[in-house]
Amino acid sequence: MARQLEEQIVGRFPVGKRLRVLDVGMGRGVQALRLARAGHQVTGVEQDAASISAAREAFAGEPEGIRERMRIIEGQAGDTGVHFLPGSFDVVLCHGVLMDDVDEPDALLAGVARMLAPGGMLSLLVRNGDAAAMRAGLSGDWAGALAAFCPPTTSYGLKRLTSTLAGIGAPLHTWYGVRVFTDTAADDAVLPDDLDAVLAVEDRAGRTDPYRGVAALLHLCGVRG
Q: Rounded to two decimals, what is the model's pTM?
């Protein structure tokens, strides 16, 4: 996903431009730190105290110039309008926020999109509602796979997301699949010796039909007109 995000940023904004980035649901700050290291001004919003603590610890080990480009605000993803004026950011990340149960997810996305300046880009990472049965099926959980064929009405597939992004003023520009072949790997799995080859295959599959359509996650980039 980091490769996909970098590809879109490089293709959309002038080389060397210091972007204003908002990371909604920052988590442990992995993407935020990556972008700050690239020279951008990054603001993270996160409500989980443990994640904030982990992010602060990671940032503390960085050079002063990078730390100065980082800011963390403790708050909920739906409260962006409380903290920022509309149009305040060039890039807004909303990665994984909609993977949890969220009240009125479309309204949350609309609020996040309002933070984009004209021409700004929204990077959205969600579970792929079009392929909800894949993980359970590949793991041999047949009951779980059958249940997943009837996903909740709050789940997002590509068609619904395309409509939602158009409706909130950030129409879909491009999309990728994430975790096409590796979704069943255990969270604590030892990294393979051929990790570069794994990443190359996942990168290729994530941008190639029909593989990207059955990925565990969808990474969509919308652009504010």
A: 0.93
Q: State the DSSP H helix or E strand holding residue 114, giving kind and residue range, or none if neither.
A: none
* CB crowding 114-152: b at 16 or more within 10 Å, else e: bbbbeebbbbbbbbbbbbbbbbbbeeeeeeebeebeebe
- Distance in angstroms (rounded) separating the CA atoms of residues 170 and 224: 4
CB contact at 8 A, 61 and 88: no
Q: How far is residue 21's CA from residue 156's CA, in Å, rounded to a whole number?
A: 24
Q: What is the pLDDT of residues 181-190, one digit of tens each?
A: 999 888 888 9
User: CA–CA separation, 115 vs 117, rounded Å?
Assistant: 7
pLDDT, position 104: 84
Q: How far apart are CA 182 and CA 199, in angstroms?
A: 10
Please provide the average confidence, as pLDDT, over all residues in the chain. 94
Q: What angle in degrees, to the nearest 10, is found between the helix axes of 30-37 and 2-12?
A: 40
Please give the angle made by the CA atoms of 104, 91 and 39, to the nearest 5 degrees: 145
- Please, which pLDDT band fits residue 59 given cuts at 50, 70 and 90? very high
